[in-house]
Amino acid sequence: QLQLVESGGTLVQSGGSLRLSCTASGFTLDDFAIGWFRQAPGKEREGVSCISSGGSILKYADSVKGRFTISRENAKNTVYLQMNSLKPEDTADYYCARDTLRQTSWSGNIAAWGQGTQVTVGS
User: Fold this and answer.
1) Confidence (pLDDT) at 29
2) Nearest CA to 79 among 33, 27, 10?
3) pLDDT range class, residue 7, cuts 50, 70, 90
4) Where are the alpha helices (DSSP H) in 23-71?
5) Which of 46, 68, 91, 117 could make an S-S bridge to 6, C-beta 3.0–4.6 Å?
């Protein structure tokens, strides 16, 4: 059964750092592109970052460029989102998602979502 589980969310002070993890089961992670999304209270879900199946193509939302880094460790079936210089506006539930297509960069077609992990950045 295809499953994604996010972890690492917590309360952190402004300027701090967190590393979120997205651990996959039920499929071979390195076959698929993975995306990170977030949804703040009262707002729509937005894309944060994505990484291609091979790990060579990385994309970031303008709001997080230079502060967030996406990476993958296929041996651990895990994709990470390193978040530095956190701001109160980064407060949101963070979700990872798997692409539907094998061996591609992120296509935007989502096969599955994780349950989310909450990040709160105090001012």
Assistant:
1) 87
2) 33
3) very high
4) none
5) 117
Do 23 and 77 form a contact (C-beta atoms < 8 A)? yes
In three-state secondary structure terms, 57 is coil
Nearest in space to 5 (alpha carbons), one of 80, 82, 116, 81: 116
CB 116 within 8 A of CB 55: no
Among 1, 17, 18, CA closest to 9: 18
Tokens matching residue 120: 């709160």
Residue 37 CA, distance from chain mean position: 6
For 35, list phi and psi in degrees, rounded to 5: -120, 150
Q: Report the amino acid identity of residue 69.
A: T
Handedness of CA 46, 9, 73, 87 (dihedral sign): positive
Phi, psi of 89 (to 5 degrees): -75, -5
- The 3-state DSSP class for residue 33 equals strand
60-111: per-residue pLDDT in tens? 999 999 999 999 998 999 999 999 999 999 999 999 999 998 888 898 899 9
